[in-house]
Amino acid sequence: GNSVTQMEGPVTLSEEAFLTINCTYTATGYPSLFWYVQYPGEGLQLLLKATKADDKGSNKGFEATYRKETTSFHLEKGSVQVSDSAVYFCALSPSGGSNYKLTFGKGTLLTVNP
Amino acid sequence: GAGVSQSPRYKVAKRGQDVALRCDPISGHVSLFWYQQALGQGPEFLTYFQNEAQLDKSGLPSDRFFAERPEGSVSTLKIQRTQQEDSAVYLCASSFQGGSYNEQFFGPGTRLTVL
Fold it and tell me: pLDDT tens digit string along B93-106?
């Protein structure tokens, strides 16, 4: 079956530090890949996505590149802010008829200190 | 505009009680999804509606779980004879179109604790 493995947390960084959260996946075919973010007390929000190999998703200074050869979709940001403190989830949507069925990783808690 | 809302936000039930969790999707969204998120885990798919039709219920963990969306808008997830292992956050999401993937917008969730 499909699965997503992401970096165990928690991750604690100082403001303006570089962020990487690793994500690898297992799926047949060509899934779409996503990063969702969950701020305290709020629902999951789509942060960025990529739908085919070598696509780069980007939003709010975050980037992730869909690497088919390494089955990875690592999240990066060059300079984090306190407001980026949240839980980050990597997810995939399978190719084919059940592409509405998201599979999530366990989430990575990021805390950014001033 | 208003996002996906869920009620109650918190629910405590004694083992064996029945519970009903409500989801109000974004107005006009055709598709509605329920996910279960256990502590320390990512959300796991439970079921999918397109309008009032339940097209996929493959993720429902047992026949104690039942979901409905009778008029194609509000949905209710019902859990009968709750067990401790049902303790989790239940997330509802909606998307504008059915069929192929469209962005799913999530509600804040209902945290269910079964004592």
Answer: 999 876 556 789 99
